[in-house]
Amino acid sequence: MAGKFQFRLEVVRKLRKQAQDVQRRVVAEAVRAVHETERRTADLTRQLDGVWQVSRSTQQEKSVNVSALRGQHFYAGWLHRKIIESEVDIGEAKSRLDQERQVLASKTKELKVIEKLRDKKQSRHISNEKRVERALEDEAAAQLYVRRNSRSALISRRGLSDG
Rounded to an integer, what distance in angstroms lies between the CA atom of residue 55 and that of residue 66? Predict the structure, then answer.
């Protein structure tokens, strides 16, 4: 029997697997960043809607507090700018996420290449093991056949010489 299968590039495979795992964490962090920015934008949008509703209801009252209305409009403008900034942040976060996903795809491809090579080598090793095993079995069967034939030949010779 031959030895256990050993893949010479196992260290390389492990390093590539680790690099892929690290990149998966980076992608997960980028996804979290996108979701957090989207959540912040949604919160700002809800706040802006609330300010507009308060502003509309204030304008419908009989006596209008101009300074309060002015403050609401100022706050609404500030919220609007924050929403725009947040939307820019979303675009940047999504762009970063796309880049990190491309890096992850590259790392995954590199790992698949080495794993495919390992699988081929392992398959070759197994078929060689089976071939060697079959050869040993054939050799053992041939020796058994020779022993049986030589015994029967020996017995038949003895039988001829006795008679």
Answer: 11
User: Domain map of the chain by residue range?
Assistant: 10-121
Q: Could you report the per-residue pLDDT of 14-23, keeping only the tens digit for each?
A: 999 999 999 9
Q: What is the pLDDT of residues 45-92, one digit of tens each?
A: 999 999 888 888 877 777 777 788 888 889 999 999 999 999 999 999
For 10-121, the fitting CATH number among 2.30.110.10, 1.10.287.1700, 3.40.50.2000, 3.40.50.300 is 1.10.287.1700
User: Could you write out the DSSP letters of every residue in 104-134?
Assistant: HHHHHHHHHHHHHHHHHHHHHHHHHHHHHHH
* DSSP single-letter state for residue 65: -
Alpha helices in the chain (DSSP H): 10-59, 66-162
Q: What is the distance between the alpha carbons of residues 94 and 32, in angstroms, rounded to a whole number?
A: 11
Between the CA of residue 99 and those of 95, 102, 119, what are the distances in Å?
6, 5, 30
Q: What is the mean pLDDT of residues 2-6?
A: 76
Helix, strand or coil, per DSSP, at residue 61: coil
